[in-house]
Batch of 4 targets.
Target 1
Amino acid sequence: MSLLHVINHPMVQHKLTIMRDKNTGSKDFRELLNEISLLMGYEVTRDIPLEDVEIETPICKMTAKEVSGRKLAIVPILRAGLGMVEGLHTLVPVARVGHIGLYRNEETHEPVEYYCKLPEDIHDRLVIVTDPMLATGGSACDAITMLKRKGCRNIRLMCLVSVPEGIRKVQSEHPDVDIYTAAVDDHLNENAYIVPGLGDAGDRIFGTK
Ligand code: PRP
Ligand code: URA
């Protein structure tokens, strides 16, 4: 069974509260998502491997540690997942970025694939899939399945707000994929929106409604 990591750091919770507020505009929403992504990134990357590197300080030579950042890929689920890339990239600037385009059919709520462009060596990398909303879990599960078909074996899912339904679906279809979330909300409404949630993440990031 995959692990569920709830990032309840006070700064993450504080920023999330502002994002949830319907009076928060796109500019602030984007900036806060960026900041939270960086903060969550600390936890998502907490156990990534370090390598020895020989360096020279002004005093002497030493064997120091460096992150094998070349082994990481960030894969946002378009559109809303894009809002979490910059924060992670600030943390790991050499990470490669792939893109998976999925949107939910408004009636069936099933994800529809429209784009996929991934680094050639994605199968050799730790992949962090980003999407602010884990609702029914359909989009996350499909994106993870697409990555597994490309040979990825080391995948983590980073979202902002989730619900038990979506968590259960990911854990049952992809028990090897750990989930990182800042909040587990109550339930989905009749339109498969998270309650209380924060509304439509893509629209709030890009100002499309
Ligand atoms: C939203 C969100 C997730 C998906 C979550 O995307 O960003 O990708 O819904 O729902 P699910 O867990 O039920 O699949 P949306 O389809 O609205 O597309 P957008 O990001 O382009 O706005
Ligand atoms: N997608 C969103 O953007 N918000 C939700 O609450 C559910 C799916």
Target 2
Amino acid sequence: MKISVIGAGYVGLSSSLCLAEMGHEVIQIDIDLQKVDAINSGRSPLVEPGFDDMFCRHSGHRLKATADYDSISSTEVCIICVNTPSSQKGEPDLSRIESACRSIGYNLRNSHGFHLLVVKSTVPPGTTQCLIRPTVLETCGDNPNIGFAVNPEFLREGQALKDFMNPDRIVIGCWDPKAADMLVKVYNGIKSPIIRTDPMTAEMIKYASNAFLATKISFSNEIGNICKILGLDVYEVMRGVGLDHRISPYALDAGIGFGGSCLPKDLRSLIYLAENLGENPRLLKSVEEVNNLQSDMIIKLLEKRIGDLKEKRIAILGIAFKGGTDEVRDSRAIPVIKELLRRNATIASYDPLALNNMKIFIGNIDQLEYCSSAAEALQDADACLVLADCPIFADLDGEFDLMRSKIIIEGRRILEFSEKEGIYW
Ligand code: NAD
């Protein structure tokens, strides 16, 4: 099939590459010209395992990129993957999706064959009905040949390609069976259960899934707080808990909390939505509260071990929201760094993939060094906080001898090295 994908982010690019791999002809559209150029010259604009190989295979052949929407009319299916951030209060910002819908509608105003518009971006329940469909129909002059589908994405950064190709389920929310059948055809070859439902239910499935994952993590963190006082290892406890098939072992890793571009924002948006509906989502608010407290926990533990943090040199290993990615949006390292700076500590940070993104995000600050290796960050440090589970940290050992005092606290469990303690273990 000929497919256009709007938005070349983690979801859009993963979708484009996998669809090309499945044999579709894909046009990737993004307003960011640097990304467009990178894609057309076979370079990945994002750090994600497997992207480089896939770009080599498909760029210029089954995958082409452009900033121009006019090629949409030559495709049969258009998949929207633009970002849908939310404010700190949880109010979703749907301006990008609205703008994309206007461009799509305008370019489909004279199209004759059936065109399927798929919403893969995460949007609050009712958005396709109340915003996306009316905006597209208004700009395309009520072209009757357009069908709509909500098809939320569940991939995880760091294993995006694997997750896209092997989803636990494919959720298809449509009003019209013809649209749903066409989307099933797009996924032909992927073996996983397909859930056919209406658009608003599909939108809610995504919000509820992320809220549930966030709940599991905050639950583990709360159990972790209790385990730490009792001198127990929460990982051993949760391994015993997770083997119960009603619970499952996933998303039970205790640590400094969940971050990234999805769980925190989608949880905030669901709370915001519930409150606007007159509901008080007590559980969801507690999940968020527990998460926000985790960065304080690691600072408190650090203070217990080394006393006043003023003018202490703290090495931070791992600043992405998790290992194996360069994503720093809503990373739990950010509140930790901010609090250390507020207490006049000096920070020497290192991350194998995310340093550049963090520089853009936080900027240049006198007390904050961006180091080019773990050894450089650890040199003369009074303490070390490990905040992301970057796989290469598992091999660190002698580098810790460079520290002034060997106080090592893990916020994510990754070190093999023995002289350390965990936030909960
Ligand atoms: P992202 O921020 O990485 O990328 C979004 C891309 O859209 C950017 O390249 C941006 O330039 C482009 N864009 C913005 N407005 C545009 C427009 N009008 N026309 C064309 N391009 C435009 O976003 P992401 O992380 O891929 O997330 C996309 C959506 O998928 C969000 O709704 C997110 O919640 C959801 N989602 C993300 C993940 C994830 O792990 N990142 C997982 C599942 C679902």
Target 3
Amino acid sequence: MKAQGFEKGIRGAVNGLQLDVNNMMADIVGPDYGITMEMIKAVGTRISLAHRKIEEMRKSGGLCFTDLPYQEKGLDDIINTAARISDEYENFVLLGIGGSALGPIAIHSALQPDYYNMLPAERRGNRPKFFFLDNIDPARTGMLLELLDDNLKGTFFNVVTKSGGTAETLANFLIFRDKLRQRLGTGKLSDHFIVTTDPESGTLREIALEENYPILPIPKGVGGRFSVFTPVGLFPSAVTGIDIHSLLAGARHMDELCRIDDIWENPAYLKGVLDYIAHVSMGKTIQVMMPYSHRLRDLADWYRQLWAESLGKRYNLEGEEVWAGTTPVSAIGATDQHSQLQLYLEGPNDKVITFIAVKQYPELIKIPEDFHEKKGISYLGGHTLNELFDAERMATQFALMKAGRMTSTITLNEISSYTLGGLLYFFEMETAFAGFLYGINPFDQPGVEEGKRATYDMMGRPGFEGKKDEVKRMIECGKPQYIINALTMRS
Ligand code: PA5
């Protein structure tokens, strides 16, 4: 099957998105360090099975994230509601965690200018300031309460939780709801909340119905980390004026490419299979995502969750114990050249590093020519920051290659809602495909349930009794000799 918008690349010539895996391949980096065609052939059956699984699931409606780029229903509602919120409020706050926060955060930092909240309103297109609360650290919630205190009337909250029952999100919701109720009165609550949640069930949905908050439904069958193209990601994006049609168009275009059954023409499959082989045949247990773009730093965090929660599985689909997955690490160029790179070059050869490069920036910043007599600085003058950024990425990749480390590069021609949509979808498909190569279910997260149950019991939630005592036993059986108390305040 052929799809439009695909062509074999020339390094450096990018029109959209380019995946370059040269530095993963044995014929480029040498047989001791790269993947051979024989290794790829050896997993041919797995590749076919994984592709078949994906196609079957698509047909049966069981791979819901693949339908999202084609959605039409509900988009107008998202855009119209977002436009109203954007006109009426000065602050927009997203309360959510995990897959209910990382996607919109990644989109926001990729597509909105740096220091967004500090810019004058006109520079933000007169859109609201944007705040995310995806933690329950009392200091952070407390600071946001303080920050919003003198303008609660001008603040709107989007509470996002697929299950409708996540403790962290509900706790923050209760805190801000209480504050609003005290300040503005119960009757005004529905003017300040919108809830993004399951279309049929959940505690938050019940509350929303009781208190008359509008509800944006997350389609059934779409799990948190695959929900970036649902109202979870689309609504907050639309509030700040991001073109969500174009975001979806990029995802659609990528989906067309991702239907091809030939790994050499399907970027998500190619990356998935190489990362899989690098792990199972070459011992690369760590996946580093290193964008050379500050705006894509949160995308690396989004990917970290997608990869970790989807692939880190104890059992395969046959119920056998497999302990699958590799550890995703997010880094950022050029900053982490001065933090992580030494380890990547000379530490254990257990990593695959994925660079994300951006070809065109709207900004071209010249480095002034100065200090002509000082060789240590004068060489920079006359170049641009853009050139320096690119040179550092290429030099880093070169050094890694010389050290026998595997790298691949994804280059975006520019960061736009279209290319970002394609990139997000690319990673979703790569992850799902890799999951099926491992033979696991990439869409559940059974491991995290134990900790959730223990939290519920410690907080007194009925129906979860018993866990608190187990936690207490763990604390009590600790030995004093393994504990050091330090920095005890002297009187
Ligand atoms: O990917 C997932 O399913 C999880 O990370 C969830 O997004 C996270 O636990 C938050 O869940 P919820 O959206 O139900 O509040």
Target 4
Amino acid sequence: MQRILVVEDELKIGRLIRDYLENAGFEVTVVADGHSALSHTRQHRPDLVVLDLGIPGVDGLDVTRTLRRTYETPIVMLTARAEESDRIVGLELGADDYITKPFSPKELVARVRAVLRRTHRVGPAQIVRAAGLTIDVDRRSVMSETGATQDLTATEFEILVALARDPGRVLSRSQIVDQLQGIAYESRSVDAHIKNLRKKIEPDPSNPTRLLTVYGVGYKLSDA
Ligand code: CA
């Protein structure tokens, strides 16, 4: 059964959406704020997120930005008519579709189905290969060419996946922190995590060839 996360702070609307999606055969969880949305996604990997842009805490656009950087979970935004500029920003950030409030629940169900059809990916496993590493995102495991399995902490793993999604692209410390929103985290501790990560993924941690420092900018994973 496909699982949908609904992020909506208005109780009545959340219930309405849940009822319609459940009747359509989906398993539905409703949360009411951005932090819960991010932590639920991290832990449960829903198949799609229905996201109200006007939510308390981390706002809908920040949720979109964070989700899109780390996961491929399709996003259908719910927006008020007055939020046209937010809607455009959301689409630019990588949301898959939107629906304007007030909306017909049947239309929402149809949109959700259409987006799932369009974005359906073969098999549930997410394997990322970069810098001589094979990263299994779902199993949270990392292997090097020699087959050795590395035991990473949750934060180290998230940083590695963020860099590995786009090898060669430099991420600044604050961009790395952005990706970890929801995990209690400070910008200055990025360097410490990078150091620990190198001990686990570099053949020679004092002379890194995989996780590279770009001085004055940030870090990147080798695309060689
Ligand atoms: Ca709202």
